[in-house]
Amino acid sequence: MGKKILKLGMLTAAGAAIITLKKSKKEKLVYSYPQTEVKKSDYKNTELNKQKKNSKGIYYSSGNYEAFARPKKPNDVEKKSAYLVGSGLASLAAACFLIRDAQMPGDHIHILEASDIAGGACDGIADPDRGYIMRGGREMEDHFECLWDLFHSIPSLEHPENSVLDEFYWLNKEDPNYSLCRATKHRGKPSENFGKFNIDDKGRKQIMKLFFTANEKLYDKTIEDVFDEHVFDSDFWLYWRTMFAFENWHSALEMKLYLQRFIHHIGGLPDFSALKFTRYNQYESLILPMVEYLKQNGVIFHFHTQVTNVIFSFENDQKIAKSIEYIKNNETKILPLTKDDLVFVTNGSCTESTLYGDHHTPANGDAKIRTAGCWHLWKNIAKQDPSFGHPEKFCENVSKTRWESATITTSHTKIIDAIKRICKRDPLSGKVVTGGIISCEDSNWLLSWTINRQGQFREQKEGEICIWVYSLFCDTPGNYIHKPMKDCTGEEITAEWLYHIGIPLDEIDELARDHANTVPTMLPYITAFFMPRTAGDRPDVIPDGCVNFAFLGQFAETPRDTIFTTEYSVRTAMEAVYGLLGVDRGVPEVWGSVYDVRNLLDASVRLMDGESLLRADLPMPVEKLKRWILKLIKDTDIEKLLKEYKLIKK
Which residue from 631, 645, 636 is spatially nearest to 598, judged by alpha carbons? Predict the structure, then answer.
């Protein structure tokens, strides 16, 4: 019965889209419109006010006209200063927009960073004691509109006459990304379902229902509330959860937003052909060029400066940041502010309190821990006004927000040969290797691993490769190492990975012990932004009434976009700068594929693994309705569109 309802619903929707088309008795195509009485009113057709700013002081735009425009300098910007708390991607992007678009003097911009290095979660560390460390990676695509808007202005470090975007564009044109093996099982054997989602009718119905559900209906709901085994047992869910790091208990709202945001890439989900990657790790490829650009423009970095609070005054309907409390050299200090002093705070952090192990030490217990106080800062700010959000919704259930990753470094030929066998590429070629993660679908840890273009670090030795490994189930004993990943040393994690890539059992222990170096990192809050939430839990980028204050990053609220992306960080930075300084230029809207019928038609066929309801034999009277619709659209542009996207045969 559910299958019939699904098919009838989809066909009825298709029919509704063309129901105004009728054929007369002479078989001529005519248009029929409902007859309505025209009433006089004050209504006028116009496009005036399309660029009217909203309550946050910004407006959204699309197209090259706005993209290529250079805004005028805001009034009195020379009298203003900016203090950016944190030096992750969002904060650095905000500083770049302050210089490029707001035209603020660089020496008026101060970046306050608790650690000794910029970059936040976008790291790539060559630790002299532990080895190479990558806590995570960054996947990018064509339609990160704000990200590319930024990086077309940031000079390349190696070739300053070119931009970071230029280099990225040329690289991914010449060496396009795609995977030749998305998943394995039985110790390194490729999955036989490569390229297929294998979702049944009930599963597709659940996905469709979520796709169209209003955001308000999904507040505080989990994915388990909207999906069951018909989705969870599919290859679609394996691909989805391992690529985006979703767990069953995460936010149904965020799942819906992801479906809508990336509907144009559903077809690229199994082989990652939608993705693009940098040449080196994200710190060297993205962060360092920004830092150099900012320094050349006079921006001042204050390292070892931990901000603990921003104090506000509330005057009428205005919220004014009056002072910054911070710790430097173990001394608590206060920085007074005026209305002309703008404060940008990155609230929350997915890499806060990271624990670092090494080849012989698990990333737990007495392992090295790096803290910056991000959650403590947000809590202190949030206490002062409800519009500043509710950090406890995201940071107080670590068992549901953590996973563990590790960086394995090796040059041993037996390991490299096993990698070649699986990914069908030479990892020492300097080009795309795995093309994205390879998930071991029968791994107790749900272990996935990837190798990006080598060397991932500029100083990496020739013949050396870095493998990034992560597991969603870090509390479950492994298949070879019968311990949870969270209790494993780097050597043990290497052994578990070698088991899953098919290294002979009698060689695993020696190779893991003597021919690799592995640094595990436990990230307690890595998926905190996926926790179920409701309106107001994440503060607006510019909370209502704020005169000189904005939030940045993954825990600030902006419409339609999705977190855990570089684009989200840069988008919040652009909105914050444009809003507080009145920059008269549109913020590029989130790519509108969800409103493009071509993308929707294409996704519907791909989710059905190339099948189409319009090409299926359906029960009566649904079959009669289908035939009527197909006859009705014959020789129209609608028929051409359905043929182009394979809903009907040519």
Answer: 645
- Give the active site residue among 83, 239, 258, 578: 258
pLDDT at 42 over 50: yes
φ/ψ (deg, to 5) at 44: -140, 135
Contact criterion met (CB below 8 Å) for 291 and 262: no
Please identify which of the residues 139, 167, 352, 575 carries the catalytic annotation: 139
Query: Pick the residue with more confidence: 369 or 198?
Result: 198
Q: Distance between CA atoms of 508 and 512, rounded to whole angstroms? A: 6
Peptide bond before residue 621 is cis, with ω within 30 degrees of 0? yes
In this predicted model, which residue has the larger pLDDT, 380 or 63? 380
Tell me whether residue 293 is one of the annotated catalytic residues. Answer: no
Q: Which amino acid is at 366?
A: D
Told to judge if 258 belongs to the known catalytic residues of this protein, a careful annotator would answer yes
Mean pLDDT for all residues in the chain: 92
Q: What was the pLDDT predicted at 40? A: 66
380 contacts 360 by C-beta, under 8 angstroms: no
Reduced to 3 states (helix: H, G, I; strand: E, B; else coil), residue 100 is helix
Residue 2 has pLDDT above 60, yes or no: no
Each residue's pLDDT tens digit, 110-133 = 999 999 999 999 989 888 889 999
Please spell the DSSP secondary structure of 5-49, one letter per residue: HHHHHHHHHHHHHHTTEEE-TT--EEE----------S-----TT
- Rounded-to-integer distance, Cα 254 and Cα 15, Å: 30
In angstroms, the CA 409 to CA 494 distance is 10
CA distances from 240 to 74, 195, 245 (A): 43, 13, 8
Best CA proximity match to 401, nearest among 519, 264, 537, 249: 249
Compute the Cα dihedral for 88, 90, 96, 102 and give only its sign: negative
| 516 contacts: CB under 8 Å, gap ≥ 6 | 359, 408, 409, 410, 412, 415, 491, 494
